[in-house]
């Protein structure tokens, strides 16, 4: 009996879910050169590589994380996470996933991918945004977005949330120590951990406070 219990414990440790991770201090983030850090994984679902993702607008990122916009006048009404670039599934990808799952009689994956790049400074984010395409196939992300950032180091975090897998990358210049946007990174990681599972692509964000990835401007209210 004792041997069986030990085997069960070992299995649980080996198959630990990617979401079961605590948010570490910045000094413990495992940074690797962009040529060595793990990229996106596709398993055997090669058709998914042709599905596209697009750069998100700042308010879409807040909606995705269920993070309320702040109206901080002392900060010049600046939105949170100014050094973060996010990529979300395009409408084509959402529909393609649904069609692929139907055509394969449920064998095709319904899981899509969301990417968050947290740069060490807003200046670095702006410089990279200028060279990155606003829309890109998932199959080109590893080569053009991750490996393409020569002279940089990244720390990679992966979370599965229902039909969406989150990839979060912290990005800094090679040789830099620590991470100057560590507070933003920790807040983003904790926000992803706290999210409810996404149920399907057509509803996309079906849980409370997760209604839709597409941000619509709120109706003006008289104060």
Structural class: alpha+beta
Q: Ends: how far apart?
A: 68 Å
Rg, rounded, reads 19 Å
What portion of residues belong to β-strands? 15-25%
User: Spans of 5+ residues with little confidence (pLDDT < 50)?
Assistant: 11-18, 203-223
Q: Helical residue percent?
A: 25-40%
Account of the protein in words:
The protein has 223 residues and is of the alpha+beta class. Helices cover 28% and strands 19% of the residues. The chain has six helices and seven strands, in the order H-E-E-H-E-H-E-H-E-H-E-E-H. It has helices at residues 2-14, 58-64, 91-103, 122-131, 141-146, 182-194; strands at residues 32-33, 52-55, 84-89, 112-119, 135-137, 152-161, 164-173. The chain has a seven-stranded mixed sheet with strand order 1-6-7-4-3-2-5. The protein is globular and about 50 Å long. Residues 11-18 and 203-223 have low confidence and may be disordered.
Quick structural gist:
The chain is of the alpha+beta class.
List keywords for this structure.
alpha+beta, 6 helices, 19% strand, disordered C terminus
Layout: helices, strands, pairs:
Layout: H1 2-14, E1 32-33, E2 52-55, H2 58-64, E3 84-89, H3 91-103, E4 112-119, H4 122-131, E5 135-137, H5 141-146, E6 152-161, E7 164-173, H6 182-194
Parallel strand pairs: 4-7
Antiparallel strand pairs: 1-6, 2-3, 2-5, 3-4, 6-7
């Amino acid at each position: 009996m004792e041997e069986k219990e030990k085997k069960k414990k070992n299995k649980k440790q080996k198959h630990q879910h990617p979401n079961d991770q605590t948010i570490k201090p910045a000094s413990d983030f495992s940074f690797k050169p962009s040529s060595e850090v793990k990229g996106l994984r596709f398993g055997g679902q090669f058709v998914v590589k042709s599905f596209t993702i697009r750069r998100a607008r700042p308010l879409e990122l807040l909606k995705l994380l269920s993070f309320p916009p702040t109206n901080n006048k002392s900060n010049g009404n600046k939105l949170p996470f100014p050094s973060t670039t996010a990529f979300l599934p395009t409408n084509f990808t959402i529909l393609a996933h649904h069609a692929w799952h139907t055509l394969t009689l449920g064998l095709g994956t319904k899981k899509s991918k969301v990417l968050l790049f947290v740069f060490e400074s807003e200046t670095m984010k702006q410089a990279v945004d200028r060279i990155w395409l606003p829309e890109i196939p998932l199959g080109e992300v590893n080569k053009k977005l991750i490996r393409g950032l020569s002279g940089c180091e990244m720390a990679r975090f992966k979370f599965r949330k229902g039909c969406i897998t989150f990839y979060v990358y912290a990005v800094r210049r090679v040789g830099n120590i620590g991470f100057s946007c560590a507070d933003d990174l920790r807040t983003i990681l904790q926000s992803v951990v706290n999210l409810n599972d996404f149920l399907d692509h057509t509803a996309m964000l079906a849980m409370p406070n997760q209604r839709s990835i597409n941000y619509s401007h709120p109706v003006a209210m008289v104060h």
